[in-house]
Amino acid sequence: MVTITDIAEALGITPSTVSRALAGNPRVREETRQAVLEAAERMGYERNVLASNLRRGKSDIVGIVVPRINREFFSNLISGAESILGQAGYRAIICQTHEELDTEIKALHTLRLHRVAGVFFSHCIEATDSSHVLPALGRIPLVQFDRVFRDLPGAKIVGANFEGAYEATTHLILSGYKRIGTLAGYLHTEVYSDRLRGYRKALEDNGIPYDQSLVFPDSIFRETGYASCHMAIDAGCDALYCAGDYAALGSLDALREHRISVPDDFGLVGTANEFFTELTNPSISSVGQRPYDMGREAAIAFLESREGVTVIPMELHIRQSSNRNNIWLK
Amino acid sequence: MVTITDIAEALGITPSTVSRALAGNPRVREETRQAVLEAAERMGYERNVLASNLRRGKSDIVGIVVPRINREFFSNLISGAESILGQAGYRAIICQTHEELDTEIKALHTLRLHRVAGVFFSHCIEATDSSHVLPALGRIPLVQFDRVFRDLPGAKIVGANFEGAYEATTHLILSGYKRIGTLAGYLHTEVYSDRLRGYRKALEDNGIPYDQSLVFPDSIFRETGYASCHMAIDAGCDALYCAGDYAALGSLDALREHRISVPDDFGLVGTANEFFTELTNPSISSVGQRPYDMGREAAIAFLESREGVTVIPMELHIRQSSNRNNIWLK
DNA sequence: AGAACCGATGCAAACGTTTGCATGATATTT
DNA sequence: AAATATCATGCAAACGTTTGCATCGGTTCT
Q1: Are B78 and A69 in contact (CB < 8 Å)?
Q2: Is the distance between the Cβ of B113 and the closest atom of strand D smaller than 7 Å?
Q3: Phi, psi at A208, each rounded to 5°
Q4: Residue A43 sits at the chain B interface (C-beta within 8 Å)
Q5: Could you tell me which of B314, B315, B313, B242 has the C-alpha nearest to residue B280?
Q6: Which strands make up the sheet holding B315-317, listed edge to edge?
Q7: Which of B94, B106, B109, B275 has the highest number of chain A CBs within 10 A, making it the mutation to test binding with A?
Q8: How distant is C1' of C30 from CA of B26, in Å?
Q9: Which one of B50, B102, B283 makes the best mutation probe of the A interface by having the most chain A beta carbons within 10 Å?
Q10: CB neighbours of B174 closer than 8 A, spacing ≥ 6?
Q11: Which of A80, B3, B14, B129 sits CB 3.0–4.6 Å from A292 for a disulfide?
Q12: Which residues numbered 20-49 in chain A sit less than 7 A from strand C, measured from CB?
């Protein structure tokens, strides 16, 4: 492997000058710089990033920690962040926690050991509070997105969950559904409690009393959504706002089993706008979070070391599962 | 940040001994080791991985380069690889190429600069040959999977594409479809040419002449699948073996537009067993590649520096789109 | 002409760890 | 008792880069 010392020897100068020339430092003669660049090219030199980072005490790698990468939301968010970070010369290490707290702590800790320049983070379901984060992460700059802990320092990028849920629920009300329940998420997590609040506010603003017995928490996977939908049906619901698309999918399973017609006799809206929501029969209405934009915003917040909360609007995509009597235009 | 030198000073010994104690080197007294471990713990020491890697001339990071991470196949493959690599103390940098050759070259090159321990690689569609890989990657150990270049060194993990396509096509023949076309992929890529060969062999083994005009190459996305399916319908096909699920999805769009009943009047089998194939109406039969196992195999091949080709069997999942008259049991 | 300055380069230390070799103290062998 | 082996530790160099300070030849100012 050819080093700057090799180049220096070949040109009869010192490594210092070579280093400066390569770094574009103005304290080196143009002529020398050209010679260095030419020699570097000719000899096939490649900077040893490890050594460089060690000396400078910083890395050009950032870590992205997400529960899963095979979710439309997270994979698009990563793409969005990469698009900005790449331009700025950063590379991303992507870590999945598989929704496990242990894995999450290990991931944060490893990133810290690698002295990454920053960490982008959306916590897992098992994490009910932020107490594990700072001990594992130390003083590495932190940008949180989607599932954020308010009490941690650093930037936070979140979807407009309250407004999104409000819009989805209002949509169900306007569609004429009368007994609207919700498959809520894990309420210790802000995204989910915000969605529940949005759901509740929409009901109350329309003169419908909020009924605790129609709230089914901890239902964000296909299986739990399926089980909770059964309970919602028993409770007399004729519509559900689901805090996750996989729960909505499970609900569809349950409704099909009960031979309940969607959207005629039951309305359904999910959250996240997963790719599959468009493909099911009936297709699933969903409130989407614009993950690509969230990723970009997160990257920008990191690059500008901006603190504070950025809220990205959500968009309701109306599909068959809530389009009763075809009253909603495309 | 506390270093081994700090620990050494605190204990009145040298950094060498501290280093050896922490590394579990037997050339250090048990008593001393305990003291070191205790001091390290107490002082909050954390190994500087950058320095360690620089000195040892190697990294504990591997790179994984894939076209996209939001594909069931790739995300599961990554999970499989991570499960093995994590145990062995490696961390993965995941890079998406978005199917672009330029991005692919940049990714390989960046990984090289970071002196990663190895690269796991599935090339993008735009790459028609391997000529860019070694120049960008240098001598970093390489493990290829799925879309591989035979002429590159290192291990290769591939699905049994020939056999999978053979099984899928045979299945369509046995279901009574008479004019079976194929939406093939990019034939300069081995996975796709293998699938075409399997398709062809299945036809010929059943006394059906191979008809070039029923082969529609370069059709692996929803849009291209849609367009090619239109052409297949015009060519009188009553079934398609698709080399990708997204193409099968596009075909479903086209068939629906033509009001052709699937599977009664048209049979469809896709490839990759994407999550959504189960959800469409009708659901899509698909040959799956067992990506999790492929990822594990790739990681094992890397750890054992094994060379050569490993073939992972594929599995046909029969769903509605080819289950004519319900003759196939679940 | 001497002082002050400037631009280009060299020197050497530093980042934190690992490791071959040397050292000195015990323990074992002959 | 001398020779040898064994053990625990220290010394110092090395990995490749960056950077504060020194140097030195040449220019500009008064």
Answers
A1: yes
A2: no
A3: -105, 125
A4: no
A5: B242
A6: B215-216, B180-183, B239-242, B267-271, B285-288, B315-317
A7: B94
A8: 29
A9: B50
A10: none
A11: A80
A12: 20, 26-32
Neighbours of A73 (CB within 10 A): 27
A51 — contact with chain B (CB < 8 Å)?
A: yes
Q: Give CA–CA dist B153/B139, Å, rounded.
A: 10
Query: How far apart are the C-alpha atoms of A270 and A254, rounded to whole Å?
Result: 15
Contacts of A207 (CB under 8 A, 6+ apart): none
Which whole number is the average pLDDT over B180-185?
98
Q: For B119-129, what is each residue's pLDDT tens digit?
A: 999 999 999 99
Ramachandran quadrant class, B90 (left: phi over 0; alpha: psi -120 to 50; beta: rest): beta
Instruction: Please name every residue paired with B181 in a beta bridge, in sequence order, or none if there are none.
Output: B240
Grouping H, G, I as helix, E, B as strand and the rest as coil, residue A145 is strand
Q: How far is CA B330 from the centre of its chain?
A: 27
B50·A48 Cβ contact <8 A? no
Residues contacting B104, CB < 8 A, separation 6+: B65, B97, B123, B124, B126, B127, B132
% helix / strand / coil in chain A, to the nearest 5? 45, 15, 35
Residue A237 near residue A169 (C-beta atoms within 8 A): no
Residue type, A70: N
A240: part of which helix (H) or strand (E)? strand A239-242
Q: Decide if B49 and A95 are in contact by the 8 Å CB cutoff.
A: no
Is the minimum distance from the CB of B24 to strand D below 7 Å? no
pLDDT, tens digit, 9 for 90 and up, residues B86-140: 888 888 888 999 999 999 999 998 898 888 999 999 999 999 999 999 999 988 9
Residue B302: φ, ψ to 5°:
-65, -50
Instruction: Give CA–CA dist B237/B180, Å, rounded.
Output: 6
Condensed to tens digits (0 to 9), the pLDDT of residues A148-165 reads: 999 999 999 999 999 999
Predicted local confidence at residue A330, as pLDDT: 52
CA atoms within 13 A on the CB side of A187: 8
Q: Are A202 and A170 in contact (CB under 8 A)?
A: yes
**Residue B287 to residue B295: CA distance in whole angstroms:** 18
Task: List bases in chain D with any atom under 7 Å of a protein Cβ.
Answer: 7-12, 14-20
CA distance B129 to B145: 15
CB A328 within 8 A of CB A318: yes
CA-wise closest residue to A309 among A291, A324, A295, A297: A297
Q: Which nucleotide does the CA of B54 lie closest to, via C1'?
A: D15
Q: pLDDT below 50 — which residues of chain A?
A: none
Where does the pLDDT of residue B325 fall: very low under 50, low under 70, confident under 90, or very high at 90 and above?
confident
B271 touches B284 (CB < 8 A): no
Residues 117-176 in A contacting B (C-alpha not used; CB under 8 Å): none
